[in-house]
Amino acid sequence: MSTLNLPRNSVHDAYILKFNLTVANNSSAPYTPEIKNVLKKAITDIRLVTDSIRVHYALNGYDLALLNSRVQKTQANDTLGMTFEEIPAGEHVDLTFALYLDEGDIVAPAHNNVELSIQFGGEIDKDIIVATANCVITLKETIYSGAQLESLYGESWERVVEPKVYALMDECAGNTEFSGFMEIPNGTLLRGAVVDFTPADGETYPELIGLLRTVPDRVELGKEDWFTHRAIDEIIYETTFPKGCVIYDFGTQWQSNRVGKDGWSFAKGDIELAAKSEVKQAIRYISLESLVNIPLYKQMYAFTTY
Questions:
Q1: Is there a contact between 170 and 287 (Cβ–Cβ < 8 Å)?
Q2: Chain region(s) in the chain for CATH 2.60.120.20
Q3: pLDDT grade for 77, boundaries at 50, 70 and 90
Q4: Which CATH number fits domain 164-301: 3.40.1160.10, 2.60.120.20, 3.90.1150.10, 1.10.8.60?
């Protein structure tokens, strides 16, 4: 794992990661790489940590590409739409693409250190190896004076809001009823989620998806037809998503404050992701959260308890 200590004299707006990979075909047959496998297997961990303990990003390459796909695609940023030519046996190919960490500012002056690390995998498939890999990092930053920082973020940094974005894995068993299967995270400001479903048969996606409250009574907080939910996502974000991907914006779909759901208002296990699905689904849940000063946020925003 390669780790870079980032400057602390600015507010970090975004990180642009340019990846350069050499993929070698050590097998005896031609091989055509698929971008999803390359992203998952070649870039296994992208991690941003402050003060050595607070994790702001913990994702693999495919997770980050899914997040980036919410931005309207252009030729330059459509990483998931990339296709590769066949690699003859014994040959190699050089791949270059960019991914973006851009889910909120990191107020670097408020921390003792800011570290960005990247872990590369060694093998994409049997005898298909990552021969070389590197990442060029571009930091988009804003530099403020001490007075400006205090005005924006408070004398004791009490108004700092920073992202917490990470992936969870779970599975949804095949069922005939709309049922909960995965606990929604709690404890922070929940902005939303990007959820990637992979059906066991490779083609049958859920019929229904939504959110379920389990206590004190069972209440369906949302239940949507799979096709309709995805159609709405594509209208809102003005782009297309991989066929197993759905988006949740908790500030509009769960609350009406356009901020998010107060994850400190319910206990672990109270709210579940739910689905009705004929076949088992493997789930990759990318949680979009914000680390906030909770007492201050309670004063600033109205949250509905349900």
A1: no
A2: 164-301
A3: low
A4: 2.60.120.20
